[in-house]
Amino acid sequence: MLNLHLTIEGASFGGVGPSLSPKGVLSAGLKIDADALPRDLLEKLSKGKVDLDDPAVSLELLKLNAVIGVTGFFTSSGTLRSVGLQCSVCHSTVDNSNPALCAGAVQPNPGTGCIGHCLDGWPNRDLNVGEIVSLAPNLGPVVSLLGVSADTVRTVLKSWGQGMNH
């Protein structure tokens, strides 16, 4: 209902706005499961040969089911139809086996990283749910529920910060 998938895609891929790059994904506290990545892609990442500012990479990560707790549903033509969130978006993180891959994205909590091996059941204290939801192009359902303006909803969501998962 929030059409968050349109923000992830961005206008250049059939959605709305500027798209969400992998750096944007990581800065929102989402985690990438290194074990879901093909070996060659992980090697390219570790050598800095993947453009983490390219939104097309975010879509590829969703296709690989590598964004922990986020499932992308794609049309037969390859466009993002919707996204689903699972409990693991908040209740899993990754180890810090690839600390250099966090550079410029987020300073993760001690013992965790941005792109690494999944730590299922560990709280994702880096997650910024408010920032993620505030990116949605359709806050109408929340506006209707609360009886306040979309601007008010976005302001409150953006004030949450990291770790305000529940």
Mean pLDDT: 88
**Helix and strand composition category:** alpha+beta
Major beta sheet, specifics? 2 strands, parallel
Give the number of DSSP strands: 6
Dominant shape: globular
**Elements, N to C (H/E):** HHEHHEEHEEEHHH
Please, how many helices? 8
| Fraction in helix | 25-40%
- Euclidean distance between termini CA atoms: 20 Å
> Which percent range describes the beta-strand content?
5-15%
Unreliable segments of 5+ consecutive residues:
none
- Strand order in space, largest sheet: 1-5
Features:
single chain; alpha+beta; 8 helices; two-stranded parallel sheet; 166 residues
Mind sketching the topology for me?
Elements: H1 4-9, H2 22-27, E1 32-33, H3 39-46, H4 55-63, E2 70-74, E3 80-85, H5 88-91, E4 92-94, E5 115-116, E6 118-120, H6 129-134, H7 140-146, H8 150-159
Parallel strand pairs: 1-5
Antiparallel strand pairs: 2-3, 4-6
